[in-house]
Amino acid sequence: MGVYAMTGGATGIGAALKARLQSSGHDVICVDIRDADIVADLSTAEGREHAVAEVRARAADGLDGLIPCAGVPPVTQPLSLIARVNYFGVVAVVEGLKDLVAKRRGTVLLVGSNSAPMVTGDDSYVQACLDGDEDKACADIDARDGHTAYAGSKRALTMWMRRQVVAYAEMGVRINAVAPGITRTPLSEKVMSDPTLGQLMRDFADSVPWGGTAQPDQIASVMAFMLSEAADFVCGSVFFVDGGSDAMMRNDDF
Ligand code: NAI
């Protein structure tokens, strides 16, 4: 059975995926800010280094899969925390562990969002993320709004993933992203209860073609497939699992 490392497995989508992997007999090393094998704050350089070092110590023979799932919602303050966790924390963990994944010709599965296409790729914040300039990205986004902070972090992460595909494949790592729509987790509950974004999110959920919101396991089941041998020619792909909302908003783009 395989050895997987993941972040953000304490609740929500990550917890559902962790349960699925474990019930299939895999070992799962979980990093989270709480309730985890390795407790680390991925918003900080020290936390990221601690997470990487501890995973390396536990998985010296390599990883079959790496799933950086930890994320924070658009209602997080300061907004720069969204950039730090959702983009820079993810990239640092993946870059710090990619050689362990290569060792087993394994796979990295990022968690994007169906909100990612709502911010353009040439946005200054997205570009600062892609340039690896954390100070600039944080200063830029602290002066803006939560939607841009969140969707922009996922836009940058998805673009980063696509840009790594060739180099990672040459290294022996298959990298992909899942792009969930609204999923019933502590993260989305925080947005739903926000006085401003809550109503927008409920209206958005009402517009989803296949109906409403997902349960975490409806995302985790697709992620488990993307990690599995059955998906071993899936490389550089973004799987929207969003009840059809991306197709509704961007008919002709794919
Ligand atoms: P969640 O809040 O249930 O899980 C997020 C996990 O990340 C938690 O276990 C939390 O403790 C951990 N975390 C947060 N900050 C951290 C930090 N600084 N260091 C380490 N761990 C930290 O949320 P959910 O919904 O399960 O989110 C999982 C992923 O799915 C996130 O990347 C999120 O952006 C993404 N997503 C969620 C959607 C939704 O509607 N729930 C929609 C699209 C994407």
Automatic annotation (TrEMBL):
Q: What is this protein called?
A: NAD-dependent epimerase
Q: Which family does it belong to?
A: Belongs to the short-chain dehydrogenases/reductases (SDR) family.
Q: Which SUPFAM superfamilies does the UniProt record give?
A: NAD(P)-binding Rossmann-fold domains
Record InterPro entries? NAD(P)-bd_dom_sf, SDR_fam
What GO molecular function annotations does the UniProt record carry, in alphabetical order?
oxidoreductase activity, acting on NAD(P)H, oxygen as acceptor
Instruction: Give the source's domain of life in one word.
Output: Bacteria
Provide this UniProt record's keywords sorted from A to Z. Oxidoreductase
Is the Oxidoreductase keyword given for this protein?
yes
Keyword Oxidoreductase attached: yes
